[in-house]
Amino acid sequence: MQKKVIIGLSGGVDSSVAAYLLKEQGYDVTALFMINWKDSSVTLSGDCSWEEDIILAQLVARKIGIPLEVVDSTEKYKASVVEYMFSEYEKGRTPNPDVLCNREIKFDVFHEAAAKFGADYIATGHYARAENIQTEQGEFTRLMAGIDSNKDQSYFLCQLSQQQLRNVLFPIGDIEKPEVRRIAAELGLASATKKDSQGICFVGKVDLPTFLQQKLASKTGKVIEIDAGDPLLLHYHNETIRNISDDNSLAEACKSFDFSAMQGKVAGEHRGAHYFTIGQRKGLNIGGKALPLFIIGTDVDKNIVYVGQGHDHPGLNRKGLFIAKDEIHWIRPDLELRPGQTHKCRARIRYRQELQDATLIMRENGLYIVFNQLQRGIAAGQYAAWYYDDEVVGSGVIS
Questions:
Q1: pLDDT of 293-349, one tens digit each?
Q2: What pLDDT score does 157 carry?
Q3: Cβ contacts of residue 297 below 8 Å, gap of 6+?
Q4: CB of 119 within 8 A of CB of 5?
Q5: Which of 91, 136, 216, 384 is most buried, by the most CB atoms less than 10 A from its CB?
Q6: Residue in 3, 15, 16, 21 with CA at minimum distance from that of residue 114
Q7: Residue 342 maps to which CATH number?
Q8: Domain identity same for 270 and 341
Q9: Angle at Cα 85 formed by Cα 315 and Cα 161, nearest 5°?
Q10: Nearest to 76 by CA among 116, 117, 31, 37
Q11: CA Rg, the chain, in Å?
């Protein structure tokens, strides 16, 4: 008897090829198109992206010969993802809506559809892999990086639970992107030449301040430049991170810089500190500097943006990060560390960042990740994900 699969079909080339491969493998495939955002007023192109995408999805489903169902999750998406974004930016943090969308929207909707249509599996076009293993603690699903290191999307799935990963298929996880494009072109799929989506999950490419102004009003504030030779920054790099010997020094090495305690000079004005994130270069509109200016910190309470000149400004670079106890998520609960335990790992703090060698250090109040090399642009609100070899073991929101 054919096994039935529900696959998310977005109108993009990746999900299109994934659907085709499942059918070729003998599955009874039903495609699911999700509508999560309908407001085109905030996108840079001004297009109604979902209306174009659903046409592509319909053409692809017809070409492959599979039924297409449509589900409208706009209200849930707004409540779970968009409102969360507004709340985080208002606090001066940098959220990742794509990670949250997978956890709160996509995989729950897929599983609901699977139950409705009596499907045995759910599937997506992510560049990731899943495999089941048996351990002394029971059976678990391993979430693995995709074979194509340039397109690996396991980071976006780092908040999924064992329940959400149960019976999940990633048909293109062991295929490289050029091969996916080749298959789509050979089949004559309508999505074959469609560019990869950019911007916010389901919303599209936006001007962030314009998007946030729906809820967060603009307000003029000072841009303060911090000199690369500031004594407190030099002390951190020359003393603090070289002498991590106890919990106090560990916490000091993994916390955000307090730029208000440093000597700075006014370099210009901005429209609102909550519109900016650490590591950002564009949007300041301040010229006349020897090197490009980068955001190195924000203070939303005082409405101050701190900047520094150049990629190598010490204010951009930290040794580690901290994740509070209630923000830690273990995809593999059987591998969860206990207070006092440590473990070597590889970690990343953003999509497409190369995995970095690091050490997990568990304490009663939370988890510290100390990197072998200084990391650029660590920002509160981002997700840090840690890997054992190619497996995503856990993740958490940076404090």
A1: 999 999 999 999 999 999 999 999 999 999 999 999 999 999 999 999 999 999 999
A2: 98
A3: 226, 256, 257, 259, 278, 305, 306, 315
A4: yes
A5: 384
A6: 3
A7: 2.40.30.10
A8: no
A9: 95
A10: 37
A11: 22
Q: Is residue 345 part of a domain?
A: yes
Name the active-site residue from 101, 158, 254, 345: 101
Q: What is the pLDDT of residue 50?
A: 80
User: What 3-state class would DSSP assign to 368?
Assistant: strand
Query: Across the chain, what does the average pLDDT equal?
Result: 93
- Selected catalytic residue, list 48, 158, 201, 345: 201
Structure tokens at 155: 């980071």
Please give the Cα distance from 210 to 366 (Å, whole number).
35
Q: Are residues 55 and 192 in the same domain?
A: yes
**Which domain does 328 fall in, by range?**
317-397
Cα→Cα distances 47→11, 40, 42, 43, 298, Å: 15, 6, 10, 7, 32
Residues 339, 282, single domain; the answer is no
Q: Can you tell me the distance from the alpha carbon of 112 to that of 232, in angstroms, rounded to the nearest whole number?
A: 53
pLDDT of 234 over the 70 cut: yes
345 is catalytic: no
CA pair distance 287, 268, nearest whole angstrom: 10
Known active-site residue 201: yes
283-298 CB burial, b ≥16 within 10 A, e <16? bbeeeeeeebbbbbbb
Which residues face 145 on adjacent strands? 128
Residue 279: count of CB within 10 angstroms of its CB: 17
**pTM of the prediction?**
0.94
Both tokens of 221, joined, read 């504030």
Burial-class residue 388 by CB neighbours within 10 Å (0-12, 13-18, 19+).
middle
Whether 199 shows a pLDDT value over 80: the answer reads no
CB atoms within 10 A of CB 58: 17
